[in-house]
Amino acid sequence: MTFVPIDKLKAGMVLDRDIYLFNSITSKIIMLRCGQILTQAYIEKLHEFDILGAYIHTNQEKEKTISATQTHFRQPVKRELRQEALTSIHQVYNMFNQVAQKINVSSINQTMNISKKLVNSLRCNIEAKISIANLKMYDDYTYNHSLGVSILSIAIGLELGLKTQDLYDLGLCALLHDIGKMAVPISIIAKPAKLTLEEFSIVKQHPVKGAEFFLKHNLANNAICGGVLTHHEKYDGTGYPNGLSGDDIPLFGRIISVADVYDALTSIRPYRKPSTPAEAIEYIMGSSGISFDIAIVRAFLNKVAPYPIGSCVRLSNGELAIIVKQNDYNPSRPVIRLFNQPDVLLDLCMQRDVQNIVIENICDVKTVENH
Ligand SMILES: [Fe+2]
Q1: Which of 47, 77, 185, 259 is deepest in the core (most CB within 10 A)?
Q2: C-alpha closest to that of 312 among 268, 234, 370
Q3: What is the rounded distance in angstroms from the CA atom of residue 291 to the CA atom of residue 281?
Q4: How many angstroms does the Cα of residue 7 sit away from the middle of ligand 1?
Q5: How many angstroms is it from 255 CA to the middle of ligand 1?
């Protein structure tokens, strides 16, 4: 089984997992079932609903070849939990514009329970790294993005050794960090072009609106409100809304800002193509000490796997390779095994003679089978 991005899906491929169309706060709807053979019409439908890719069945022979060279990537957060989380985030976001009497504290408690489950799930898989491809299986950017940011934030928090209750609070804070966007007109949020200065100044108010919502209804503690308020502050003081710098930015804000930027860069947006995980990591590393706290970036790099072990990648020299081992110093340059020369292992980080080779992308199944 391999995750194949939407633009690489081809008619004739066979689904290895159900694809969900998530369009209801109370139910999940299966769009296509495991075992379904993809047709061009189905693929167009997936495009229409902004589904980001699908798990595709690979033939046994290729599976064996790949299995012999790898340990399969373990998924730290199960699909059911991710769907439960999306439902919960959706419910709380919908409360934003309700009158005070209709604010339902139990929805916040339910979201806190999701945060606890996410923390426990990631803690049980402490060695597992976060795979970006696996985070992006569902449609609906805002909720999806919030969940992605939460998973990454908790992973960073675990790496930093935060206490359990702090991890729960951090997870909840990240799940709801963008709730203030409900105060921004949808025409601005979904605008498929660059925002005007006036529009951007409206968007820049969303951290304040979010923190005000929690404070006004007494729904969250200071750490959570502080994280919501400061998730767009930058370490050098050039962020918004208050231009805080360094350790004046609360820890939750510093953690969520890294997770937020990384998830946003690697997501499909109406106005641009997503960055590759490696490009996003380069950006985060390049902004370390400027936009982001160096200690947080270091923890983040230890927890992210842009190329999960076992994935097949195309190199800049045209060759295909399998990811064999992560490199803690530079997750963009792991240890690989050449597809056509299984005896050759290359350490893209440590070996000088391969410094000019870069990973271009993760390959789809057909590319591997035709190679
Ligand atoms: Fe935000």
Answers
A1: 259
A2: 370
A3: 14
A4: 28
A5: 13
Q: What CATH code would you report for 2-57?
A: 3.90.105.10
* Class of domain 79-305 as given by CATH: mainly alpha
Residue predicted with more confidence, 173 or 121: 173
Q: Domains of the chain: which residue ranges?
A: 2-57, 79-305, 312-370
Q: For residue 361, give Cα distances in angstroms to 13, 167, 278, 323.
A: 20, 33, 9, 12
**DSSP bridge partners of 312:** 322
pLDDT in tens, 94-143: 888 776 666 777 888 888 999 999 898 888 766 566 654 444 433 356 77
Rounded to the nearest angstrom, the distance between the alpha carbon of 177 and the centre of ligand 1 is 6
β pairing state of 320-325 and 29-32: unpaired
Higher per-residue pLDDT: 341 or 131: 341
- Distance from the CA of 145 to the center of ligand 1, in angstroms? 10
Question: Could you give phi then psi for residue 361, rounded to 5 degrees?
Answer: -165, 170
Mean pLDDT computed over 12-22? 73
If you measure from the C-alpha of residue 66 to the centroid of ligand 1, how many angstroms do you get, rounded to a whole number? 40
Q: How far is the CA of 298 from the centre of ligand 1 (A)?
A: 22
